[in-house]
Write a structure and sequence with these properties.
This protein is an alpha/beta fold and about 350 residues long. It folds into 2 domains: about 5-125 and about 290-310, NAD(P)-binding Rossmann-like Domain (Rossmann fold, 3-Layer(aba) Sandwich), CATH 3.40.50.720; about 125-285 and about 320-335, Dihydrodipicolinate Reductase, domain 2 (2-Layer Sandwich), CATH 3.30.360. About 35% of the residues lie in helices and about 25% in strands. It contains 11 helices and 15 strands. It has helices at about 15-25, 40-45, 60-65, 80-90, 105-115, 130-140, 165-170, 170-175, 180-195, 290-305, 315-330; strands spanning about 5-10, 30-35, 55, 70-75, 95, 120-125, 150-155, 200-205, 220-225, 230-240, 245-255, 255-260, 260-265, 275, 335. The strands form 2 sheets. The chain has a 9-stranded mixed β-sheet with strand order 14-13-12-11-7-10-9-8-15. Strands 3-2-1-4-5-6 form a 6-stranded parallel β-sheet, sandwiched between helices. The radius of gyration is 20 Å and the shape is globular.
């Protein structure tokens, strides 16, 4: 089986998790790391004992290497579009950290480049591989709670100076919005569970009274989503909350309900209280806690079997459009209809 060479763009926190995931996959090998400072790329290679890995300070040089087949974008949000377009034009498959773009036009430009290049993509909504997510999907497929009519997924995670991305996360031009920078995980979870097209979005957002973390954009938002069959969804996102990390899931169906890892169902005769499933919850913002190995294995399998991912750039259109629509709704104080 051909070994797929991997190039990593960026040397921050999450890039280390990508590297670890590629290094334990039998079909991949990290062969290049690029950073604005070559010394940082060299240090990252040493940290992970990548003896055959080249360090670059120019993206074009790494993309010119024919032995690199996959590129992971692990840079701040605002760099994903130009870097992703360059990688797609070079014929590289892409693993793109979320969000892939901070505005609709940038997203469309990247999507056009990927479509033209016909490369495989995975957008790093990595919680799709979290065991609780997989358990919930199995319960929904089995009809345990019937057909959903309401879904709520919340992302509550204070991101301050103690967090690696804080320095650029607080800025509008690089952070984007509460949903784009982090809450998009919850938006994608909402879509993943409901499984239908979103058609309308309405949102409010605000600062806390003192804005102690000095965000340039409202770090708190509540977004209501209407789906094509009338199902309602809600996403609350706060990145200035003062509390431990919470990723809340509430799914109401006509035969039962799911609350995170708890289930109540009419199908389970005699059930008198919530049944708790012992599984791994998405209960930490630490990227070392996330299932990157499973995500990378999925991307590699898609490449080797020549199939599209359920988490492809094409699939992520609606997740990003909901985030963009939320900003428009807040700014213009009106409902926004999809597609944009």
């Amino acid at each position: 089986m051909k070994t797929l060479g991997v190039g990593i763009i960026g040397t921050g926190w999450v890039s280390g998790e990508h590297i670890k995931a590629y290094e334990v996959n039998h079909h991949t090998e990290v062969r290049g790391i690029v950073s604005r400072e070559k010394a940082r790329a060299e240090a990252k290679a040493r940290e992970h004992q990548l003896s055959g890995c080249h360090a670059y300070d120019r993206l074009e040089e790494m993309l010119a290497d024919p032995d690199i087949h996959i590129v992971s974008l692990c840079t701040p949000h605002h760099l994903h579009v130009p870097q992703g377009i360059a990688a797609a034009k070079a014929g590289k498959h892409l693993l793109i950290e979320k969000p892939v773009a901070l505005d609709l036009q940038g997203f469309r430009d990247l999507l056009a480049a990927v479509r033209a290049a016909k490369v495989k993509t995975v957008v790093s909504f990595v919680l799709r591989w979290n065991p609780l997510f997989e358990t919930i999907r199995a319960l929904l497929k089995d009809g345990t709670v019937g057909r959903l009519f309401y879904a709520e997924v919340d992302y509550l995670h204070g991101i301050g100076p103690w967090y690696a991305q804080y320095a650029w996360n607080v800025k509008k031009e690089t952070g984007g919005s509460s949903l784009l920078t982090a809450g998009c995980h919850a938006v994608d979870g909402l879509r993943w569970f409901v499984g239908r097209q979103a058609v309308e979005v309405f949102s409010f957002s605000n600062f806390s009274a003192q804005n102690p973390l000095r965000y340039e954009y409202e770090p708190n938002s509540v977004t209501v989503v209407k789906f094509e069959d009338g199902t309602l969804g809600k996403v609350a996102s706060s990145i200035e909350c003062v509390m431990p990390y919470v990723f809340n899931i509430e799914l109401l169906g006509d035969q039962g309900s799911i609350r995170n890892n708890q289930v109540f169902s009419k199908r389970w005769v005699g059930q008198r209280g919530w049944a708790t499933i012992p599984t791994i919850l998405p209960d930490s913002g630490d990227v070392t806690h996330h299932p990157f190995r499973e995500e990378v294995n999925h991307l590699v399998d898609c490449i080797l079997s020549d199939r599209e991912s359920h988490a492809s750039l094409e699939d992520s259109v609606q997740t990003h459009e909901i985030c963009f629509a939320s900003e428009i709704s807040t700014r213009e104080k009106r409902p926004v209809f999809l597609p944009l």
